[in-house]
Structures are given as C-alpha cells and as structure tokens.
Amino acid sequence: MKKIILSTITLLSLLLLNSCTDLAENVLDEASATGLTDKQAADGNIAPVYARLPDVFTHTTYFAIQEISTDEAILPYRGGTDWGDNGIYIALHQHTHTSTDPNLRNTWLLLAQGISRSVTALNTLPTINDPNTKTYVAEARGMRAYYNMLMLDLFGIVFVKDDPQSNSQILRGEQALEYVKSEFLAAEPNLLTTVGPGRLTKGAVWGLLARLHLNAAVYRDRYAAQFTFKPEDMNKVVEYCDKIINSGQYQLSPDYFSLFNDNNHDNKELIFAVDQRAELNGHNRLAYFSLSGDQFPLPAFPAANGTDGPAITPDYYRTWVNAYAPNDPAGIDPRFYRQNMTIPADSCVAASDVNMNRGILRGQQYGLLRVNGAFVRCGNNYRVGKLFNVTRNRPTLPVNFIEQVDFTVAGSNYSTGYRVLKYEFSKKSQSGRNLGDADISIVRLADVYLMRAEAKLRKSNDAAGALADVNTVRAARTALKPAPALASMNLDLLFRERGFELYWECLRRSDMIRFGKYEGTWTEKTNSDPQKRIFPIPQTAIDGASNIPGYLAQNPSY
To answer: Which residue among 134, 238, 255, 293 is the one 20 to 30 A from 305 at the CA level?
Structure first.
C-alpha cells in the first residue's frame, strides 16, 4: 500500500501539525487509498503542498501582517466596536504587537504546516513510479524554500528539515539566506515552464530568487542602520529578471485591473499565484475586506456584502495626490481607479450591468438598494442609488468614504477612510467571504521590471536603465489611457512607483524595510524601533520548544 497524504482526491481526515517546532504531520495509511494509480498517488502528495496557500493569503494572516503594519492600510475599531479584536490590528499598525497576537500565530502555523507538508511529499514522492514524480519533487522542494522564505522575512528564521521524524535545524541571518537560495537553485532544473501560475515553475523560482537577492542585505543584517546592498546580489537580481523578461513567456497586461479579475488565471502577466479556480478552497476575502457593509455587489446574493474593514491611510493617498497635482490621479493613472458603472441616483440597471468600480474608492458610494433583506426591483431590473449605513443601524449616515481615518472615535466611523477594491468580487460569493475565483498574485511581470530597476539603481545608480524599466510598466496599461512617462528616476521615486503598482499585494512591509522607511511616522504610527522589522515568534511556539533548551530563542524586543 502506498503511503500518501490525502488531498482533493479524498478528504477523509484533516492533517494536523503535531508541533510547531518539529514540523511533523500525520501521514495516513488509509485503506480506502488502495487501488489508486501511481498518478493519483503522486497528485495526492503534491496537492497538499500548495493547499495552505489560500489560507496564508487570507485577509487576517499574511495580508494583515504585510499591509496593516504599514502606511498603506489601517483598521480602526469601526463604529467603536467592530474589528476591535482586543486591539490586535491597532497594535499591528502601531508596531506594538506582542508574541500572543493570534494572527501572527496563525500565519506561523500555516507556514510551518506548508513546510511540513513539503517535507512529507519529498519523502514519499520518490517511492511512487510516475513520470510526474521528478517534477513534483522539485516543486515540493521549491515550495519548502518559499514557505521558509516567508518565515525568514516575517520571523527571521528558517527550518531545515529532511527527515519527517527528526527535529528541524533552525537557521538565522546569512545561513538562513544561503539555505533558501540553495534550495531554490536545487529545485529549478527540474521545474517546468508550462504549468503556472498556480504551480511553481522556472519563472516563479527566478522571480523568487530575484526577490531574495534584493532583500539579502536586510536578511543578513536585520537591524542595520543602513543596509549594504552587495553588487553581486544586484547582479543576480538583474540576471533572474532578465531570464523572465527575455523568456517571452510573460506579458504586461494592457488592462491593469484584469490582473485581479475572477478569471485571471490565464493572464500572461502572472508568474506565480495562489490558484483559486474551480472553488479549490478559494476565498473572496481580499475583495470583501475593505468594502462597506452596505455595498452588495451581486444581485443574485443579497447576503454578500463588505465588512467595513481597513482603509488606506491619508499618508499613502497623498503620495498619489502629490504625484499628479493639480490633477486628480483618477484621470491620469489607470492603476488608481477604474469606473465600471455610471450611476445617477435612483436609477435602474440590469443584473448583468451591476459591476463595481475598482481601485481606490472615494466619496459617496452608489449600489444595489436592499430593504428587509431583499434588493429593490424595478421590473426586471434592480434599483441602484445612494447608499446609507443601513446594516450598521445608521440609516441616515451615507456611505461616503472620506480621506480621514484614525483611531479616534470620529476617525473610526464606518465611512472613514478611502477603501480598496482591487480583486474582483467573485460572482459566486454567496456570503462575500467564500468562493473566491481570482488567483492571488505572488510574483508578476511588473514587479520583475521594478525589481530590475531597483537593482540597477542600487548597484551603479543607473537611473536611465531604471527609468526605462519603470516607464515600460507605466506605458503597458493601454486598455485606458496609460500613465504618463516619468522624466527621472531615483530610489524615492521608485519606492513611490512600487506603491502605485503593487499596493495591497502583500509587499509593502518588505519594501518599506528595504527602503529604510519602516521606522517612519504615518497615520497613528510613531514607533521607530528597528527591532520591529521582524515579528515575534509566537509564544505558543516558544512554549512548545521549551523542553529543548536554547532551541527556539525569541526575537529581540519581544
């Protein structure tokens, strides 16, 4: 009988992580698994390796850690109570979080489980006689490196583990960096070029290696007053970015927001992404998280709405305003906003024409009107008008998003702060939270151009080469009038450009640290402690490893 991890073939049992320190997982010998073909057994071992990715990228795990801790996103107590959660989102934004933060703990456990499942696959796949095994082994090894790369970025450590029954070796700093790099390099030769973006490919590993080398200075000396970006690292960034760009396999998307549509799997700009097609445990939370509780995007589902979660900070918004003043950025840069409906008050639209605006949402919002749990109809069509906070029992308060948002009573109101709808609201999401279809971008081609531009600047101050890369991305968005070309380039402008292109894509914290801006001051945040560049190891993990003296040491300042 083959020893397998059951996946989408048959879900008879949950695979539980035994320990956050030894990274062991139960591998089940199921009688019902007899009779599986070698192909089914191989598929059943690689699928769990990827299965944690949708959970890692939910709104309260990796997204919260990478975005709410920065100047891009802020989540106050909405209405004084909602999203309070014992102050964890306020603490995350103000860099006063602790080792008992449940979202940090959940992210840690998901990454640890991803490593564990990769180790199990690496031990089981070689025993299966299937032609896909060689590729699957490479994918499992590369995914183990990716989960460890996130561990290194967030918590400052990696777990080295080959034998499922042994304890992991813990590495930090240069050793951790070199380990992750070596694992990606070992996986790359046997990866395919034709199975992305939901699976690890050569292009995906090249992109992740470029990102690893770009951040190498941070990982080597986490608390440095000034990071030292080695020329050899920057050369590697350019080398891997060149490989992706010159492969001809990927293309910048003319329509920026199509990158985040619910049918984006075949978008040629995506290099590596969380595959959420066909309801593969996908979620819709990156769409619903920022919307008002009175924004109902789907005529078919009167229960699917937003949750009045995070807004962008005025500081981040002002980067757009200052870049395009005296003009409004919505009329100049197609990445800022896309209007999909023109809705005068009290109008009627067909169900097929209900299509929410995308990007950064400002001002009075219009949408489907709901009374007593049902949408108001006008014949076969739907009444669309000015929205009020009816679901919040404030029927006279308009859903009118304003720039101000903070942790005061006034700043925490349900309509404070401009909101973001970047990922398309899934047309099948009955609750607003479930059944996400959009693949969630991990690496895409625009980021590759911007990484190459940064490496050129950091190595030799090649402003002309960096400017060409940035303007290539800006000029590509031709579905609407593209953003005008920039005339000059430096690191501050490049940081701003990354904020325009990649906002709310789980890269901001890492970018702010690398550019030396994470200790800065922005809305409701003044903490300048460089030791907050990494997060605390969850206290549950420290406690779980207490029987091995010195095995798992807490990060400084926690």
So the answer is: 255
